[in-house]
Design brief:
about 600 residues, alpha/beta, Rossmann fold, seven-stranded mixed sheet, about 30% helix, about 15% strand, glycoprotein, transferase, transmembrane, EC 2.1.1.-, methyltransferase
Amino acid sequence: MAIKSDNKTRSSVQIFIVFSLCCFFYILGAWQRSGFGKGDSIALEMTNSASAADCNIVPSLNFETHHAGESSALVASTKVKTFEPCSARYTDYTPCHDQKRAMTFPRESMIYRERHCVPENEKLRCLVPAPKGYVTPFSWPKSRDYVPYANAPYKALTVEKAIQNWIQYEGEVFRFPGGGTQFPQGADKYIDQLASVIPMENGTVRTALDTGCGVASWGAYLWSRNVRAMSFAPRDSHEAQVQFALERGVPAVIGVLGSIKLPYPTRAFDMAHCSRCLIPWGANDGMYLMEVDRVLRPGGYWILSGPPINWKVNYKAWQRPREDLQEEQRRIEETAKLLCWEKKYEHGEIAIWQKRLNDEACRSRQDDPRANFCKTDDTDDVWYKKMEACITPYPETSELQVFPDRLNSVPPRISSGSVSGVTADAYEDDNRQWKKHVKAYKRINGLLDTGRYRNIMDMNAGFGGFAAAIESQKLWVMNVVPTIAEKNRLGVVYERGLIGIYHDWCEAFSTYPRTYDLIHANHLFSLYKNKCNADDILLEMDRILRPEGAVIIRDDVDTLIKVKRIISGMRWDSKLVDHEDGPLVNEKVLIAVKQYWVTNSTASH
């Protein structure tokens, strides 16, 4: 009887712990600083409704790890390193895109605007602070139009781009009217014009690339049409344009079309766009257009808006010689023909080409001496690889279903056997596993798919199973495929209608601080074991995570115990919990929340 009584007591204690932990994260996530520092309506509603029923506890999910003894012993026997805050001057620090460092590199081919990371002995190894007054961004869709001034206090664009309707300063917020250099009357009307040629309403076009995106209004307004744009722009004189994009809740990275290949797989995008992006498309033997062709899927579209289109009418307004503009357009047209693109539209300052579905109509270029075909066997091997003026051959198969069907159907790269060692059955099993994992995540954090977390990153995305399982209009996921993982898996991510990028986590990511609301890392630390310092990876996660943002790390228990020890010195609150299948599974989940603190302040919830 005594044994039964002890078991009953232990069971009651475990249920209480489970309930308490769930509600802790539920309420902690709900009470967010938003707008002007007050709890927003969603947070208030979620907090008021928090109850045992809302926490949705299931008996099989044990939030208390059965390795607590090992963890406690390790922490007790090893001195925990405390990471100090960086100086206030580093609030917008981008380690691989530092302005002062960039000026030491050549200007040709925009090399100085490419990634140039600080050497190992110059890494800061401190916690990048938020600026004073920092608040949680507005929820989508309000965030599309408004950004708190305190989060990115830079007014230069409000003056420089005033007549183009990019951005306006209104009291304590920036307002984004949806204008752009080529669409001062608004992105919606501009996209309507494009949609008269490009099928944006039926799911045929799902992924888009915006080169030289500004504040990403084109990508922001494509959202309502269920198109996901990957936008990039350099960190240059247009201060904080990518930062503004991410504060608005729009996918974007710091980047440039320069001398290095774009960090995206072959045949990734259904549509690519340049709106007065100042890229010299006719230069370097058409190399930049050939790189766009590489990442554009068969049947995809390329849009060029601005110079040199319609140069006969606009050369005076552009203050450029007629002859230069005429030659620039001639080179673009010539390269497009060589790439087997068909011109579908030209009106005003907009021209649209379509890449052909296959090379049947391009047989003649096989004998064209100008047609230099890429000779690499791995067209997705792009990380820090020099861009080449060569044509990427067409694949044997490339048929895609329309979105959302393509999200969970077997992608062509899998069905054709292009991904070595992965069958259709294995792919579908991976999908089932991630649906199961995400269901368990939602029991831990009931705010996961409520819109509380808009910008989400998966640091080791695999086939994009995590992103597919939480797909919603309320959020987006940056699916990162580490360069030391299977490179061809990012191609599968794009074939599903999701977006992502290649990256090496031994270096800093191409983004500003505080740009992600939630970070997911699946076996990332096991992957990078003995490759680089786990401290550096966690400090980078801290840099790009918003105050009060959440982290989910899935890995083996020994790895997670080490990670938990490191983050105990990083102003994060964390909890190690069991796998959803029970305590006997070696894989565990570490849940963490970054504390709210700003420069020259102490940590605070």
